[in-house]
Amino acid sequence: MSGAMLAGNTAEHRDVLIVGAGQAGLGTAYWLTRRTDLNVQVLHAAPEPGSSWASRWDSLELFTPRRFSGLPGLRFPAGARDYPSKDEMSAYLNRYAARSPLPVVTGRSVRSLRVTTSGFEAATDAGSVTADQVVVATGPYDRPHIPAAAADLASTVQQLHSSRYCRPTDIPSGSVHVIGGGNSAAQLACELAGTHDVTVVSSRPPWFLPKTIAGVSLYWWLYATGTLNAQADTAVSRLVRGRGDPIIGKELQQRVAVGDIRLLPQRVTGASDERLQLGDGTSEPVQAVLWCTGFRPDYGWIDIPGAIDAEGRPIHAGGASPVAGLHWMGLPWQTRMNSGIIDGVDRDARAAVERIVEKHKAGDRR
Prior knowledge:
The protein is α/β, with parallel strands linked by helices. The chain contains eight helices and 22 strands.
């Protein structure tokens, strides 16, 4: 569905408004519409629920197997490859929203969210929506992050963030420095190594984990041992958070070992002209730079005291905001290790629905 302009200035009202129809928003809507009779609406700025996946680079594959890439009520379909492509993920989310069916309105952006005397008001590009409770499920990865050093590189250095990269021909022939130490950096460095001289610059030595152990997916082992669902405050979770996200698969490690890719485990501290300055005091000449430096949250549209901290991050305990009636979904480490991947949506969504129902029964809109 697409949003329609409201007549006059009358605001729509919902018991629960969900902002964002990615996997977190859709999973929450699924349980809300099956376990309650609440009036629920999901607003999504993009034309389709799967748009964010469809817009990523051509060869992108999830690093979670199909078994761990589905939402409640619909298994991820079988395929020729163990790991879904970004286009398969996009198609799955679109099918999920339509099949359920879920009360999703696409192409309608929430420009601001504020607290009123009776609940919440979301100003959208098609009029206002009021709600007793709100679930923010837009995710923490809205705004591409490019370090400040990028501004000091010469105009002769082509720079591209991974969010705008599609294929190797986007990078001029010759050498390219891939900046970042996560799964995106690893995948793109390996792809570019077929056509370019690649150097990976990572702020710390990458932590590699195999995709399979004894022929069985790593995720099955993590699931079977309880690690995948470990609570965020357990010792194993604290260990993983301290080391940073692992790179799933060892292709980059193998290519570095045989000299196909050069690895510099150094932090980028600055830049000048056609050189990057590194944490060890050296500098590195660059011809092209692919910034795989992730994303930052963009919650500037939330005008609610106590909802966001000074660094722009959600304030919450397991997804529950200190602001009564406000809920978060899809945050990394929201409750457990797998909160930030698709497999973790189910449990976190059910917990959010329990809070929503409890508050609705209490009849307290604030």
